[in-house]
Structures are given as C-alpha cells and as structure tokens.
Amino acid sequence: MSKKDLTEEDIKLRFITPAINNAEWRNEHIRMEYYFTDGRVIFQGKVHARQTGKKADYLLFHAANKPIAIVEAKDNSKPLGGGMQQAMEYAQILDIPFAYSSNGDGFLEHDFLTGKETELSLEQFPTPDALYQRLIKTKQLDKEALKIVEQPFYSDQYTYEPRYYQRIAVERTVEAIAKGKDRVLIVMATGTGKTITAFQIIHRLKASGAKKKILYLADRNILIDQTMVQDFKPFKKIMTKIQGAAIDSAYEVHMALYHQLVSNEEGVEDPFRQVQPTFFDLIIVDECHRGSAKDDSAWRKVLEYFNTATQIGMTATPKAENGANNLDYFGEPVFTYSLLQGIQDGFLAPYRVTNSYISIDLQGFKPNEDEKDLLGRDIVQRLYERKDIGRDIAFTKRREIVAKRITKMLKQIGRMTKTIVFCTDIEEAEAMRSLLVNLNADLCARDSRYVMRITGDDNVGKKQLDNFIDVDQAYPTIVTTSELLATGVDCKTCGLIVIDKEIGSMTEFKQIIGRGTRLRTDKGKWHLEILDFRNATAKFKDPKFDGDPEPPQGKNGKPYTIPDEPSSVVSEPHVKYLVEGEKIAITTEIVSVLGEDGKTMRTESITDFTRKQIRKRYATLNDFVKNWTEAERKKVIVDELKDYSVLVDAVREKNPALAHADIFDVICHVAYDQPPMARRERANNVKKRNYFAKYEGKAREVLEALLDKYADYGILNLEDSDILDTDPFNKIGKPQRIVKLFGGIDKYEQALIELENEIYKTA
Question: Per the record, which residues fall in region Disordered (predicted)?
C-alpha cells in the first residue's frame, strides 16, 4: 500500500506522532483529538441536540494548561499545508503562537509572532523548549515578570481544567500585571466563570510572590458567600469575609461588600481607612459595571484610597451608563468573551423569545373626564403609555392576562421550570405573586413555596433565595421580583425569564438575560425561554448586544409596529392609579429563536427552516440519495445535518403524519417534496422480496429481528452497537455467539449493510 492510500489516522500513527515524539514532546505535553468547545446546542420545539465541537488533532503544551502549538493532520493525498487554514483559525481562537499542518511528508509552520511560514522536514519539528524560547523572546519580560508569568495554574482533584477562554483571560491578565499594568478590565458574559477566572489570577499572583494582600469586592452578600464556598474554597485558611467595620490584617484574602467599607453616617470614618492605603496590593472588583466605576459613587472612594493596588475589573457589560464608564477607569479590556461566543461554543444556553403584545400597551389609555380609579381617586387626565403601566397606573385586567400567559407557557414547557418574573416594582411583584398562586393552586397546595416574591423589602422571600438557586431544590419554582434578582444570582436551572417592566439600559437588560444563560443539561435545561411583554428583547438587535435580530414580522409579513421604548426609566411616582381596564387582550405574539448564524433571530417554521438547511448541504434529491446510499452508517449523515441545525425529530414533532416515517423519508419529504413511507411499510417490502431466503437458522432469525427493530424504532437503532444485548437477541445468545453465526464480525457487519441497502431499495 502506498503512502497516498493511507488514511489520516494511519498518517498520524506512522509519521506525525513519531516526529513530534522525536522532538522531545513527552506524552504529558500532547493532547490528541482535543475538543476545546462543547458544540453549540440546537433546539427546535422540544427536541435538543449538540453540534460537533471544535477539535484540534494535536494540541501541544509547554506546561500544564499552557498550550503553545497546534497541529492539524491530513492524509497524504492532500498538500503539506492542506490543514493550515484550520490550524490557524483554531490557533487564533486558542491564543496560541504556532500552527502546523502536516500530511506525513513534513510540516508547514505558521509563526504568529513573525507572520512567516516555513516548511520543515519530519526531523526538523521544534522541541518544546525551542518554541518556548521563541515565545518568551518576543514578550520581553524581565526575570521578575517571567517568574510571575511562568507560575502554574492551581490544580487539585476537585478543580476543573480551565476552559480555553478562561485560560486566555488568566494568561493575559497575569502578563499585563507582570509588565506593570495596574488597571485591568476583563469582559466575560454572565455564566462563563468570572469567579473561577478570578481565583486562578489571584492564585498565580500570590504564589509567585507578586501580590500578598488581596481585596475582593462585590455588591451583594450572595455573591461573596457563593464565591467563598465554591470557587475560592482553596483559600479557606487564608480568607475572611469583612463583617462590620473590622478588617483583620492576619488574613491574606479579604472578601467584602462595597457598602460595608464605606460609612453613610456623617462624621463617622470610613471603615476602610483603618488600614494604610498600601495595605492591599491587589483588588478585584466583581461586576464593575455597577457603582464601583461611577465617578460620583461613594464606593469609588475605596478604589481611590487603595490607588497603589493593582485593580482588576470584571464585568459582563463593558460600558455602563450614567457616568459609570468602566472603560474610562480600567482601560480597554485585555480579554472579551461574549454571550454570543458562549452560545456558539456550547457553554451557554441559546434562547427562544416570545414577544407578547398587549392591546392597551400598543394603544395607550386616556381616562374619561372625571374618571376615578378603583380606590376612588381622580385620575390625572393624560395619555398613559406602556412605559407608565405598572408605575403610574396599573390595570387589574392586564395583570390577570400576564399571569395567565405565564401559567400557559409553564404548562407547555414544564410547570416545575425555575422562573423569574421581572415586574415594575414591589407592588406589581406582589400582585403578580398572588395571581400566579391562584392560577396554580394545585401546585401551591403541594408546597406553598411554588410561587414566592423575592424583593429587597421581604425577609421571608429573601430567606428562600438559596433554595431557589439550588439546582437540587424544586421550590421556590416561580419567583416574582423587581430588581433584586436582576444581577448576581447564580440560578443555573432558571429556564424561563418573564419581562414585564421597562428596561432602559443595555446593562440591566444583559444582566437580566444573564440570569438564564447557564446550561444544565444534566438537569434537563438545554435552552432559555424568554416571555417578553415590554419589547425589551428589541435590544438584541442593538450593536451593543451580541446578536442582530431581524425586526419582528406581523401576520401579513410586514414589520410589526411597536411602541417606542422610553428614553430612560421613569422615577418612582407618588401615586399609582389602579384601574380595572376594558377590552384588554394579547393582540399578537411572535416567537423567534437565535438563527444558525448565531446573530439574527429567525421566525420561520421548523419545516421551512429544515428544508432550507438540508438543501444547503444537498442541493438535489439525487445528491442526498447518493450520499445516504454510500454511507456505511446512516448516523454519520444525521450527525452531519445537526451541524446545519437540522433536527429530524423536531420535524416529526411538528408533523404528526411523519411520526412513523423513516428518517430518510422525513428528509426527502421535507426537503424535496417526496411522498413519505412508513418504516413498517419499508420492512414489509423487504419481506415480500424474500430477501432472507439466502440465510437459514439462527442467522436468519437475527436478521428478521433486526428488521423488526428497524420497523419499531428506526435505522439508528439498527446501527446501535449495543443492539445485540437487547431482547430478543439476548435469547439467541451473547453478541460474540451471534456474530459467529455469520462467520465473524466482518461478515456480520456486511450482512447489516446489505440489510440497510435492501430497506432503501425502493428509494
């Protein structure tokens, strides 16, 4: 067999791997078939799947968790640089300086440090030390800085290997500080692991001796408490939470709330002044888009007092409004990882948006002359618009409609789905709680915590916050709030966010959406549902947000007219009128999901979308049939279509007539308008042709049983490697014995391929 006839795996085994090993790369330096993303979650209806994650053929490390080179392999029929573009793409994603492509004849090197490419023989592949010296030379680090940069990541049996973007954030931050930068900004989407990233930064700076006293600042108790018992747990013996006014100088890592360090009483000294301005040499500011970066904020005093300390800001929102511009204070971010990228990589949950438009929100309300509200108060004569509802005026009928729509959605997606309902204020949150209790009385009778209000003024509700965020606790299930849950609450299983309040700022919107962007597939959470009564999700199309949705379409296909959003959130009024409201109803609903490009929102039907995507891959029916017939395993075709966001089971769900059709027939019907055939019909056609006549005894019995399995469950079940362990095959014998009936594994697999061909013979 010539070299050009070898598979890619053979080329790796015989040529590429030995060449890398001969260049002093030990096994612990090499990761093969290294997946660095999980693969984007796609969902249609109630069907979910993952696309294929990004994978490097070889990832080479000069130290633990510190990759330095990537190698993409091709078979020998391809040119030497056949894998270079993919290697370069992955190297840029992974922030790696050296990319290589090989077909087994040698290597093509791309050096991102110089921009040059060089052809190398198999014997010329560089050693780990050679690559590292080339990298360090360009960084121009002195001895002390090099000591900081070379400090390893923290690792023990309880810690996870950092995701690629967390590693990049840590490396860039540590290097920037080693070079003398004293203000650093890191932008990471909610749910992507800012606190574990902060932990690794602190560990490396502490372990290297660069920093000794650390202050970690947040603005919510729950943020501090979560961090201490989870990501910062290895600091347990040297860490303390600042309580009251005392700062215990014996500890090295201090966890604190902004407001605990600042006095609100005139003439009382700020607690942080009890230590010298040089006491802390590293401060990490969690969620620095809020008060910590605001010029006129008292919290800013903490940062200015300890101005000799290195200060790191971490946020999901790189710019904040009303003077709180964290870019001005911390500078441009050293690293950014967006919500969009997190969804594309499969680390964050994609979302489906239901925009629900209510008549009175669209039309407005103007009271009749001398009209009084339900409490007997004269209603001020003016036009009340959507921005006023819930703040200046409330309609009991509208509240009921919202509560009923929430309940209806929960009955569709699962009534035990953790839900946050964002209301205009505490009064609206309480009214919504009461309505939801009555609409879900059966579940409230089972546990009174099924619906609860959690707001800043209610200690009973706040005490249940830990249970709400606990992934193993079912109750509370539905929580109504105004602002308390908008930021910082790490509720990984929150599957429904309801917006019934005006959201004036992008910062607030991104934080609210961030409450539901975490994935917990082990708990059944694959995506986030957003039920929006205020058109807040129009912000998805804002350039400041990651996505760029198309405008929602009305029933006639034209853009739907929606009220303008308020220029700013209206201040709390002195009087809120309460009116029953007449002829209030939901006039239009538009459901959209994040498109396959990860940027736009699409509203087309699953069937239309599937047709378009299949034809992207297979332009004609003949193209598809040819590929299907030639595939030794049909699962390869099905998995490939997932990368085009095609989910056959979702099409079946929307088309009951296709419930018993073969996957092949579903695809041909939806994409190419071919009449579908039921699996049982295909199986009967095989029997009519007397295909089994050439087999006898137990072998024939096995094939007949396989055909019955196909008729019941489909072609993928037939290809399942464990099928011979199931009934009725386990009554015939163990898999090894069954295979022997056909003369060995190769002949059994050939018989299976022939059976599949016979199934599709009429196609």
Answer: 541-568
